[in-house]
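4.2 Preliminary Data

To establish feasibility before requesting continued support, the project team ran the inverse folding procedure on a target of 362 residues. The structure was first converted into the token representation described in Section 3, and no sequence information of any kind was made available to the design step. The complete token record follows.
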């Protein structure tokens, strides 16, 4: 009996030790990969809890807005870290470049660009954030969502349409107390769902396990996004605003050729033959096929393919200054085509819809 007890105790020690070592190894893998990709050990920036939006960093300052921000049309720009700006300089974000182009080229019809981009946000969390802002503020002339990369990445990680930043951690805290007996040990249960081991597995699923284009979960994801964007379009209309969804450019999802001399100078972490690219292309194309005829949709998926210099950071999602300028230039041109009327200064609410025919070539 003592021998059995000692054996069981030894096995338990090895099991606990193995779990600890796996978590330590996962911690090192996640932290070092963050440093390799983003130049920092942590993924994302410091955020604060918000009861409406879950967490927020806050509005990032936008340069080049008109001196008097009470006049002119207001544009709320939502998105993840690409919209917020993966740069240390506020004047080099997409909203700042957009304000520069718009207000320099059309100073008699000023527009105030407000950067509501948040690191890690996808369309689900942006929707919650928009609801908070509409409760607390007067609605703008235009509500612009700059989406695609985070929605695709989170779906690839979790394979559910409900995925968002911190999905496992939040769901584990709320649901699993009653789901199993292990939930009685709330601190340990919360630690399990917050573990680096689980995060590493999610990253593995994102970049290694390919998404089947016929997967019912992908269909549910597309259905959920379509309903969400249709809802946002209706909400914006109800407030007298216009809604625009820009499907953002992404190195992983590009489907048009890029000049060879440019490709040689792009330092990306993985090759385009990887499962990660497959997963981005599958989700991107599924969403484009579903949304391309919507009056609020414009596809920038391949808008950077004509580039003459590198425009992506090593992760293939965040942009360099050159990429942010190109995107801002296209946005300025497309807004003037239909979403913001430059000719009519006295009718800021008289906004025309930009139909699918105005979208850049795919």
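Position-by-position output of the design step:
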């Amino acid at each position: 009996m003592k021998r059995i007890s000692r054996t069981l105790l030894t096995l338990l020690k090895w099991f606990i030790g193995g779990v600890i070592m796996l978590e330590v190894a996962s911690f090192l893998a996640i932290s070092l990969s963050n440093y390799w990709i983003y130049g920092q050990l942590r993924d994302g920036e410091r955020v604060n809890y918000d009861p409406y939006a879950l967490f927020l960093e806050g509005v990032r300052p936008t340069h080049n807005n008109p001196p008097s921000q009470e006049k002119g049309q207001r544009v709320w720009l939502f998105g993840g870290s690409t919209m917020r700006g993966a740069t240390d300089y506020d004047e080099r974000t997409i909203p700042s470049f957009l304000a520069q182009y718009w207000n320099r080229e059309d100073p008699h019809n000023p527009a105030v660009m407000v950067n509501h981009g948040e690191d890690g946000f996808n369309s689900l969390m942006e929707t919650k954030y928009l609801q908070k802002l509409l409760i607390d503020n007067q609605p703008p002339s235009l509500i612009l969502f700059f989406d695609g990369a985070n929605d695709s990445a989170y779906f690839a990680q979790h394979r559910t349409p409900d995925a968002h930043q911190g999905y496992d951690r939040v769901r584990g805290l709320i649901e699993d107390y009653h789901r199993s007996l292990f939930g009685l040990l709330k601190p340990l249960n919360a630690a399990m769902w917050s573990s680096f081991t689980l995060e590493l597995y999610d990253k593995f699923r994102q970049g290694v396990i390919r998404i089947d284009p016929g997967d019912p979960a992908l269909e549910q994801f597309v259905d959920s996004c379509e309903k969400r964007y249709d809802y946002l379009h209706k909400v914006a209309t109800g407030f007298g605003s216009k809604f625009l969804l820009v499907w953002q450019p992404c190195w992983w999802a590009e489907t048009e050729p890029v000049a060879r001399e440019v490709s040689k100078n792009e330092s990306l972490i993985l090759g385009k033959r990887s499962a990660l690219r497959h997963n981005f292309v599958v989700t991107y194309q599924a969403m484009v096929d579903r949304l391309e005829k919507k009056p609020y949709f414009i596809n920038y998926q391949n808008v950077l393919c004509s580039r003459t210099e590198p425009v992506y950071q090593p992760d293939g999602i965040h942009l360099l200054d050159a990429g942010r300028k190109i995107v801002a230039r296209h946005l300025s041109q497309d807004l003037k085509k239909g979403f913001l009327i430059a000719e009519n200064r006295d009718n800021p609410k008289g906004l025309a819809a930009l139909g699918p025919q105005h979208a850049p070539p795919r």
